[in-house]
Design goal:
By secondary structure, the protein is α+β, with helices and mostly antiparallel strands. The protein has three domains: 107 residues, Acyl-CoA dehydrogenase/oxidase, N-terminal domain (Butyryl-Coa Dehydrogenase, subunit A, domain 1, Orthogonal Bundle); 108 residues, Butyryl-CoA Dehydrogenase, subunit A, domain 2 (Beta Barrel), CATH 2.40.110; 133 residues, Butyryl-CoA Dehydrogenase, subunit A, domain 3, CATH 1.20.140. Helices cover 53% and strands 12% of the residues. The protein is built from eleven helices and seven strands. The protein has a four-stranded antiparallel β-sheet, with no helix packed on it. Strands 1-4-5 form a three-stranded mixed β-sheet, covered by helices on one side. A hairpin with a 5-residue loop joins β2 and β3. α4 packs antiparallel against α8 and α7 runs parallel beside α9. The protein is globular, with a radius of gyration of 21 Å.
């Protein structure tokens, strides 16, 4: 599939960017933006061509997430989570479940969300308290609480990571929004940044599902975690590289607007030129390392995982540093929320704490070089 970064950048600037501040200020889920994304066919990016999708790969995934996040970090994150679960469904779900989900995405614009983290689990998703119990009638009953489920209450499908009926193992089930016993606490979401993604708790109270809903064989939870790990980590890296692109655009627009409105050429100040160069360099660094990691994964290089982890770390740090220098250029107008810089600054800070955290990734990255 041909590169699509510039195509989606143009689309998102037209259909998403004009409303991004509104989504953020109201903590409002971007329904219309997701409808536009469906209409363009981007929700079907990872669905195979023979099934009616675009047949894209991981590099296309990074391009799309990055391009959307340049206009809205929240929209980029919602889209990224959808693709991550879709990738796992491609690899592990039964043919019937795959086909049903594909058709729902293509026809209805159905979204998929990931429900893995839990209140007591922190950054550890390998020991879930949520459990699926096999009943006498062959159904499974799931009980538990998931925390910070992006798109909570708005996605049609939720991939729930839970303890298996078999002791010591884990399973993944795809649960529909209208399932009896499934609810969300939307009022619990009040994030500093990424405010429009509605990352709220999910409650599973005696939710019953069939074998049909299981993604993979019994006990395949860890396998599923491994299958989605690269698109997940690389997707997050792409979102934060996208924020870097958004900051370059926002700072450029601010400098030009000040010149037009007041005749004040900010470029006469050496510090402004220095800061703008920093912002651009951070963007270039973030985009380059993310695309390099994606190509390394697709080429099956021996060190692709190190590059993926490094890309996530670097892109996140670039976004935070770029936001700092962008705010210095934007000054009081940005601090007073008169442009996008303040919003992107807040969005950038989510990256250091989102699973997998930067501290955890840096620890794992170092261990890869010293494995015995």
């Amino acid at each position: 599939m041909k590169p699509m970064f510039e195509e989606i950048v143009a689309f998102s600037k037209d259909k998403i960017k004009p409303y991004a501040n509104q989504f953020d200020q109201n903590g409002q889920y971007p329904k219309e933006a997701m409808k536009y994304i469906h209409k363009q066919g981007y929700l079907s990016l990872l669905i195979p061509k023979e099934k009616g999708g675009l047949g894209g790969g991981i590099l296309n995934h990074t391009e799309a997430c990055m391009a959307l996040a340049a206009s809205s970090g929240s929209v980029g994150l919602i889209y990224m989570m959808h693709n991550v679960v879709l990738h796992q469904i491609n690899e592990m779900a039964s043919e019937k479940l795959k086909n049903d989900v594909y058709q729902s995405i293509i026809d209805e614009g159905a979204l998929i969300a990931l429900a893995a983290s839990e209140p007591k689990g922190g950054a550890n998703v390998t020991g879930p308290q949520t459990k699926a119990i096999l009943l006498d009638d062959g159904k499974y009953e799931i009980n538990g609480i998931k925390s910070m489920v992006t798109t909570g209450g708005y996605a049609k499908y939720y991939l729930v990571h839970c303890a298996s009926n078999e002791e010591g193992l884990m399973d993944n089930f795809l649960i529909e929004l209208n399932s009896e016993g499934l609810s969300f606490e939307e009022n619990k979401w009040n994030g500093l940044g990424m405010r429009a993604n509605v990352s709220c708790p999910m409650l599973l109270d005696h939710v019953k599902v069939d074998e049909y809903n299981k993604v993979g064989a019994s006990g395949d939870g860890i396998k599923g975690l491994n299958i989605r790990s690269v698109p997940f980590v690389l997707g997050l890296a792409s979102v934060y590289a996208g924020l870097c692109s958004g900051l370059v655009d926002a700072v450029y627009d601010h400098i030009k607007k000040r010149e037009i409105e007041s005749g004040n050429d900010l470029l006469k100040y050496e510090s402004i030129k220095y800061h703008f160069a920093k912002v651009y360099n951070y963007m270039n660094s973030a985009k380059s390392i993310v695309f390099d990691a994606a190509r390394s994964y697709e080429n099956e290089d021996s060190d692709y995982l190190q590059k993926v982890y490094s890309a996530r770390i670097v892109a996140t740090e670039c976004a935070m540093e770029s936001a700092k220098f962008s705010m210095r250029i934007g000054g009081g107008r940005s601090y007073n929320k008169e442009n996008e810089i303040e919003r992107i600054l807040r969005d950038s800070y989510a990256g250091q704490v989102m699973l997998p955290s930067l501290d955890g990734l840096e620890s794992q990255l170092t261990e890869m070089f010293f494995e015995k």
